[in-house]
Amino acid sequence: MRAMLQPLTRRDTLQPSEAIVVLSSGITLRGEPTEGARRRLQHAYSLLRLRLAPRLVVTHLPPPLPSYVPTVRRDLRRMHIATELEEVGPIHDTHDEALAVAQRAREQGWNRIVLVSDGTHLRRAKALFEKCGLQVLCSPGTTPAQALSRAAALEIRGLKLLEFSTARLDLKNRFSGRATVLVAAMSTHACP
């Protein structure tokens, strides 16, 4: 299974860039990054140590979720990494992240960024950011094995959700004689 994920992972040869951008993953209401977010941030810190960019950009999820900035500032101080720290958002999805970062890049005159996310997410994320006019170099913050364990966890949660939905649908059919089926479709978004 790991061999199957390898072609899905996007990893570019890194070059000096204007910013390292970490895509949001998750943060608790207490301001602690989730495990996935922590892996992405740790990877970004290692890129900053290599002096690949003079700044780190994080994205802010919508309220009531707090900002990553206090945690990142604390981490940077603790690790003695001197860098500019910027935040864009609030964002709801990768498309919002691409728009917000591209706007900041235009304002600041950036051309190239290093994008940090899960390896299997980077191919799609890179396409969105490039559509918004940025040169993007991908650097996965997770390995294919980590992505596989996350995918397995999501699959298990998805199966539980499917079982719940099926049970609910059965009850609904039994009592009302009809069912509602929701279909979610991913739409394509344009950048300005």
Number of distinct beta strands:
5
> Which H/E pattern describes the elements?
HEHEHEHEHEH
The percentage of residues in β strands lies in 5-15%
Determine Rg (CA atoms, Å): 19 Å
Average pLDDT level: 80
Quaternary structure: single chain
* Proportion of residues in helical segments: 40-55%
CATH architecture of the largest domain: 3-Layer(aba) Sandwich
Structural domains: how many: 2
The global form is: globular
CATH superfamily of the largest domain: HUPs
The first-to-last residue Cα distance is: 39 Å
CATH first level of the largest domain: which class?
A: Alpha Beta
Category by helix and strand content: alpha/beta
Fill in the CATH topology of the largest domain: Rossmann fold
Please give the count of helices: 6
Weakly predicted, low-confidence segments: 1-6, 157-189
Strand order, main sheet: write it out: 3-2-1-4-5
Largest sheet: 5 strands, parallel
